[in-house]
Write a structure and sequence with these properties.
The complex is a heterodimer of chains A (about 500) and B (about 325). Chain A is built from 23 helices and 2 strands. Chain A has about 500 residues and is an all-alpha fold. Chain A has one domain (about 1-140, about 145-500). In chain A, strand 1 and strand 2 form a beta hairpin. In chain A, helix 6 runs parallel beside helix 13 (about 300-315), helix 7 runs parallel beside helix 12 (about 270-285) and helix 8 crosses helix 20 (about 435-460). Chain B is globular and about 65 Å long. In chain B, helix 2 crosses helix 9 and helix 4 (about 95-105) packs across helix 11. Chain B has helices at about 1-25, 45-60, 75-80, 95-105, 140-150, 165-175, 190-195, 205-215, 265-280, 280-290, 300-320, and strands at about 35, 65-70, 90-95, 115-130, 155-160, 180-185, 200-205, 220-225, 250-260, 290-295. The chains are: A mainly alpha (about 500), B alpha/beta (about 325).
């Protein structure tokens, strides 16, 4: 059994006291920094990377992995408590998580996120150890045409995300697409909508948009309410842990999220993001029980599914790095950078040349997940106390930390001005009843879609039939068409209208 | 007596007048020194910056601090260097984009040659042209033969429009009268992903980026762009020996300073960095980053930079790259 041998080799490395200590330090620091709004995993690792230079390579990577998970988990904490997503995949966690917090159920939401993530992470590690090569073969079939078709499917699914008006959801997706166009066009190299401002040549950062529209927008609208109304949310905190009923609701959602997340996570570039959005969209399609809150109004499934998908995807996104040595996202790129500092040449050879390092890293991810659960379940009580801080103290702190976080990305004050601008945009959206989640999806998927569409056409020398003659691409497009037909069918339309009236 | 007093006054005054300058050069550095890295943490420019700053801090007894000011192909951080006080307490690390930016980025807020001073050409790296293992090409000559058959017969990926790889292939195409089908990617990761999966038949990127996949056998190296074979990829012939005589185009890393930095300081930091590069441990770390150490003197770097700027400006102009229609 290769699987058992590999895992035991890995645990042999990861379970030494010194490496356990580094895993703990990593998780702890990661959580602490990750809960500061605006500082996501990438910024956290970038900041603490120099601190790992003096450690032995295995310990350094284990600590970095701990930081990654800690920061990611810290990010879900801020999504739930104060509506601040630290990275794109946490955007959907905000929807139901923040509603739960407003209903005084932040505790169960945080626990659902932690437990769901742990379960999904465990499955992800097993999948990674057992099925990396066959999963990689699937990912290898994905060329520009397939990515484009997959994203069409994703965008059509995004419309399902909206709980309100279909027209507004489409408008938000389109607005997101437009924002995504800002910056240098990959094909021609010409900056678009950058108005000769150097800071706009690389486009608008995700964190700026998320912090502004979600965080600042919410704060401005909260300040617009009378103080009495605001305190209703914080007064009635009940139940730190999920009830038996919560567990029953979230268990199937965790399973579904794990499946979707593991599959989509294998695709480099946006796989993990699509996973959490797809898991949420799927939950919306699952029939709600008569006495259950609808999704979008504080349903625990709306937290458990995307958080599980996100974490499962984070594990399986290691597969491209394992089999090809190519970093699938910015965090992995930083980890590869760390390997080079420690004189390990990254690439497909890492697995054969440094098996102890590789499997040690994989198993330490599982240990990191476990530590996070142990570390965070007791912390839930403390996070919730944070909500009891009077809003007049809480909101300036959030505003300040967001500004610091955004500044720390590029050390550029221009980003803070953009943050303020998007804060205003977010406030207007709340007033107009427009939901920002589809905007984020459009913003992230739009440029990727354009890039892959044009790349596919360059490769086919302008022949559009490439999208239907490649079987995988044709299959994805057919599924998208099916979705669209179902959505436009009179029965579903009627159900949407009913749901909207509730 | 009076005369002596007068002379003393003159001496004292002149000391007062020239002291700041003399002190600045004699005791430099008097405070922590900033090294502006115009690229994000983790990349090659950042790592070079961190390796240099750690060694320089111990050599000169002042902290050398890396500051990442990212964006717009490095031009945002470079603009910060250009507008910093020229007192020897700010330096910048630049990459090959430094010589291409003047032609491709509209309205840069500084003049690459006038507002900056060259300190040292630290290192260079060859690029490799690789083909997927199932492609028929055995070497660069095969690729050229296939490309000559009709325009756009050969598609190749690069790390972006206006990247050194794109410009080099365009220049080679111009010399031989060949039109390649250029497929731009967003950086080395996505490019190599499609290259090893065979989604794009050919790719050009630095030896550092391509080498792991050459070693694993997923792609075949057809040629390198350096004038001579590189020790990083032994046995692979330069394109100069495969139908493009005397051709060379390499990625490079260099140190720059604000334009009016006094030459004595520039010479001093050059000497100090040179000392760092002599350290075998540093040399090995940089070689792992795929760099061939050069250590070019300020004047040599200046000449190199000027020729690169005018060379790529011509390629950009002649082929209307990143300039619109």
């Amino acid at each position: 059994m290769d699987l058992l041998a590999n895992l035991s080799l890995g645990f042999g490395v990861a379970l030494t006291p010194i490496n356990l200590l580094y895993a703990f330090i990593g998780c702890f620091l990661g959580t602490l920094i990750g809960v500061l709004p605006g500082i996501g995993p990438v910024a956290t690792i970038a900041m603490l990377l120099p601190a790992t230079f003096s450690l032995p390579p295995v310990s350094a990577l284990i600590m970095l992995a701990g930081l990654y998970y800690g920061a990611q988990y810290g990010g879900s904490t801020t999504s739930i408590l104060v509506n601040l997503p630290g990275e794109p995949s946490a955007v959907v966690t905000c929807i139901d998580g923040y509603q739960m917090a407003r209903q005084g159920r932040a505790g169960p939401a945080l626990a659902a996120a932690a437990l769901g993530s742990f379960f999904a992470g465990s499955v992800g590690v097993l999948l990674l150890a057992a099925f990396a090569p066959p999963l990689m073969l699937l990912a290898a079939e994905f060329g520009p045409a397939e990515y484009f078709s997959l994203m069409i499917l994703g965008l059509i699914g995004a419309v399902v995300l909206a709980s309100g008006s279909l027209l507004k959801a489409i408008a938000m997706v389109l607005f997101g697409l437009l924002l995504g166009l800002v910056g240098t066009d990959v094909n021609s190299g010409i900056p678009r909508f950058s108005f000769d401002i150097p800071e706009l040549i690389d486009g608008i950062g995700f964190v700026v948009i998320a912090m502004g529209i979600f965080g600042y927008g919410e704060i401005v609208s909260n300040l617009g309410r009378s103080e009495k109304e605001r305190e209703v949310y914080t007064a009635k905190v009940h139940g730190l842990f999920p009830t038996r009923r919560d567990f029953k609701d979230m268990a199937p959602a965790v399973l579904r999220g794990t499946c979707l997340g593991s599959l989509l996570g294998v695709l480099p570039g946006g796989g993990a993001l699509l996973g959490s959005f797809a898991a949420y969209a799927f939950e919306k399609k699952v029939r709600t029980k008569p006495d259950e809150l609808p999704l979008g109004k504080g349903n625990i499934r709306g937290v458990a599914a995307p958080e599980s998908a996100n974490n499962a995807g984070a594990q399986t996104s290691f597969i491209p790095m394992l089999t090809l040595g190519i970093p699938p996202n910015a965090v992995m790129a930083l980890m590869i950078g760390a390997m080079i500092i420690h004189n390990i040449q990254p690439g497909p050879q890492v697995l054969t040349r440094n098996p102890a390092l590789f499997w040690g890293l994989i198993t330490s991810m599982w240990i990191g997940n476990l530590m996070l659960v142990i570390l965070n379940l007791p912390l839930i009580g403390i996070w919730i106390k944070m909500l009891k801080v009077p809003y007049r103290f809480l909101f300036p702190a959030i505003v300040l930390f967001c500004a610091i976080g955004v500044y720390s990305m590029n050390n550029n004050t221009f980003d803070i001005w953009m943050l303020a601008g998007f804060g205003f945009v977010g406030y207007v959206f709340i007033k107009l009843g427009c939901e920002p989640a589809p905007l984020v999806l459009g913003f992230i998927l739009g440029p990727m879609m354009e890039e892959n569409l044009r790349r596919a056409l360059l490769l086919s020398l302008g022949d559009w039939s490439t999208f239907v003659t490649r079987p995988l691409s044709a299959g994805l497009l057919a599924t998208a068409l099916l979705f669209l037909l179902v959505m436009l069918s009179p029965a579903v339309k009627k159900k949407r209208r009913e749901a909207f009236e509730e | 007596m009076k005369k002596g007093c007068m002379a003393a006054t003159v001496v004292a005054m002149s000391i007062c007048l020239f002291a700041p300058l003399a002190l600045a050069q004699g005791n430099w550095p008097t405070k922590p020194v900033k090294i502006i890295v115009p690229f994000p943490p983790g990349g090659s420019v950042d790592q070079l910056g961190r390796i240099l700053s750690a060694k320089l801090s111990t050599q000169l007894g002042q902290q050398f601090i890396v500051e990442n000011r990212t964006g717009a192909s490095g031009s945002i951080g470079t603009a910060v260097v250009a507008s910093s006080p020229p007192d020897g307490h700010t330096f910048g690390l630049v990459f090959d984009t430094h010589a291409v930016n003047p032609s491709t980025i509209p309205k840069m807020p500084f003049d690459t040659l006038k507002d900056l001073a060259s300190v040292m050409l630290v290192s260079t790296a060859a690029m490799a042209i690789v083909a997927h293992e199932k492609q028929p090409y055995k070497d660069f000559r095969d690729l050229l033969e296939a490309a000559k058959k009709k325009p756009k017969a050969v598609a190749y990926g690069s790390v972006g429009t206006g990247s050194l790889g794109h410009l080099a292939m365009t220049q080679i195409g111009g010399i031989l009268g060949i039109e390649f089908n250029h497929i731009p990617y967003r950086g080395g990761g996505p490019l190599m992903n499609d290259a090893v999966n065979g989604q794009v038949p050919v790719a050009i990127a630095t030896v550092f980026v391509t080498n792991p996949h050459v070693q694993s056998g997923k792609v075949r190296a057809l040629g390198v762009t350096s004038a001579k074979p590189t020790p990083q990829m032994p046995g692979v012939k330069p394109v100069a020996d495969q139908g493009v005589p005397n051709y060379s185009a390499v990625a490079w890393w260099g140190v720059i300073a604000p334009g009016k930095t006094p030459p004595p300081i520039i010479n001093r930091i050059y000497e100090e960095i040179n000392k760092v590069l002599k350290d075998p441990e540093v040399a090995q770390k940089l070689s792992l980053q795929g760099m061939d150490l050069i250590g070019g003197k300020p004047a040599e770097f200046d000449t190199f930079l000027k020729s690169e700027i005018s060379r790529w400006a011509k390629v950009v102009r002649d082929n209307k790259i990143a300039l619109g229609d």
